[in-house]
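Researcher: I'd like a candidate sequence for this fold, 340 residues long. If you have to choose between options at a position, lean toward the conservative one.
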C-alpha cells in the first residue's frame, strides 16, 4: 500500500528527492506553504530557531565581519557583500548605512528568525508573519564563525519544536476609482516635490498605489519603457563605469547597492549582475510594467527606472548615484538621454 504523505516535512523531503535543484522559495509555492514553514522543518537537524529582539541581534552582526546580505522578492534577488556595521533604530524603523551594506529596515515585519546550516553554508534568515523571507545574512569564507555560533546561542529560542503561527497574506490593496482622485492637486504636489522621500507620503495622502500614481502622473513625469531599454541602460552603465543605485525590497527590508555594475550576464529569463561584491538576479518575464519616473527635488530632477509585477508590486528600482545635497549623476542622465 502506498504511503500517504501528510506532514510538511514529508512533502518537502519527497519534493527534494524529485527535484533536488529546486529552490526553497519555489518549493514553498509548489506545496502551498510558506518558506518559513519549510525552514522550520529543519529544526533539531540543521536549523536553530531564534527569538528575542531582532533589532539587538542586528546590531551584533558586525561581530561576524565580512558577510553577504540578501534581500529578494519574487522576481529580483539582491546580494551585497560587506561588513554589517552602524545598525541603528528609531522605533521600529532601522538603518544600516555603509558604502557596502545599505539597508532600510521595517521591523514590524520581522516575526521569525532562524540560524541555518545548509551544506556547511551558515546563515541567519528572517521572515514576516506570512512566512515570507524579509532578509538573510550569509557567512563568507572571511566571516568569523566563532562569533556566529556565539550570536546564535545568545538568541536561541527556548522552545525549538512546534509549528509556526504563520498567518495568511492580506488581500491586495484595491485601487480607488480614478474619478475620485483630485488630479489637479495631486499633479501640483508631484511637481512641487522637494525630496524623493516625500513621494511615499504623497501616495498615502491621495490613497494611490504606486502603479496608479505613475499611470496618472503629471504630463512628462512618468512614461513606460521596455525591457530592452532597461538592458541597454545597464549595458551603457557597465561600459562607462557609471555608478548607479539598485534598490530591491521585501516587506521588511529595502537593500541598496551603490556603485558599478560591471559583469552582466543573461541566462534564460534571468538578467544578472555578477560582480565580486554585488550580485543581482532579475527575472525579466516577471516584469509587467517598466517606468521612467521623474521626481523633483531641491537638488534638481531625479530620474529612476522602476519595474513592477502584474500585481503592481515593486520589483526593483534603478537610480543614478546621488546623496541629499548633491545633484543626480550627470553620467546617469547622459545614459538615459542616449537610450530613452
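Model: Candidate sequence:
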Amino acid at each position: 500500500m502506498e504511503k500517504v504523505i501528510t506532514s510538511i516535512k514529508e512533502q518537502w523531503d519527497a519534493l527534494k528527492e524529485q527535484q533536488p535543484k529546486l529552490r526553497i522559495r519555489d518549493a514553498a509555492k509548489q506545496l502551498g506553504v510558506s518558506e518559513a514553514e519549510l525552514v522550520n522543518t529543519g529544526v533539531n537537524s540543521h536549523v536553530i530557531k531564534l527569538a528575542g529582539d531582532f533589532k539587538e541581534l542586528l546590531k551584533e552582526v558586525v561581530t561576524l565581519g565580512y558577510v553577504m546580505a540578501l534581500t529578494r522578492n519574487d522576481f529580483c534577488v539582491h546580494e551585497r557583500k560587506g561588513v554589517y556595521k552602524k545598525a541603528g533604530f528609531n522605533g521600529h524603523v532601522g538603518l544600516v548605512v555603509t558604502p557596502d551594506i545599505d539597508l532600510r529596515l521595517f521591523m514590524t515585519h520581522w516575526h521569525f528568525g532562524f540560524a541555518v546550516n545548509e551544506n556547511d553554508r551558515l546563515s541567519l534568515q528572517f521572515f514576516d508573519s506570512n512566512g515570507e523571507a524579509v532578509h538573510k545574512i550569509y557567512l563568507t569564507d572571511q566571516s568569523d564563525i566563532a562569533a556566529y555560533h556565539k550570536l546564535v546561542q545568545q538568541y536561541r529560542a527556548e522552545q525549538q519544536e512546534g509549528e509556526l503561527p504563520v498567518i495568511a497574506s492580506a488581500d491586495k490593496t484595491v485601487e480607488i476609482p480614478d474619478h475620485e482622485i483630485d488630479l489637479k492637486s495631486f499633479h501640483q504636489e508631484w511637481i512641487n516635490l522637494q525630496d524623493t522621500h516625500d513621494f511615499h507620503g504623497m501616495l498615502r495622502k491621495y490613497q494611490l498605489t504606486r502603479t496608479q500614481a505613475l499611470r496618472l502622473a503629471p504630463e512628462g513625469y512618468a512614461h513606460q519603457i521596455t525591457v530592452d531599454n532597461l538592458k541597454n541602460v545597464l549595458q551603457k552603465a557597465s561600459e562607462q563605469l557609471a555608478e548607479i543605485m539598485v534598490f530591491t525590497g521585501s516587506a521588511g527590508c529595502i537593500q541598496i547597492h551603490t556603485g558599478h555594475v560591471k559583469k552582466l550576464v543573461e541566462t534564460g529569463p534571468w538578467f544578472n549582475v555578477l560582480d565580486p561584491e554585488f550580485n543581482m538576479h532579475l527575472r525579466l518575464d516577471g516584469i509587467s510594467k517598466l517606468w521612467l519616473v521623474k521626481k523633483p527635488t531641491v537638488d534638481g530632477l531625479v530620474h529612476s527606472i522602476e519595474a513592477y509585477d502584474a500585481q503592481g508590486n515593486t520589483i526593483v528600482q534603478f537610480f543614478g548615484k546621488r546623496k541629499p545635497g548633491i545633484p543626480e549623476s550627470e553620467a546617469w542622465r547622459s545614459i538615459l538621454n542616449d537610450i530613452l
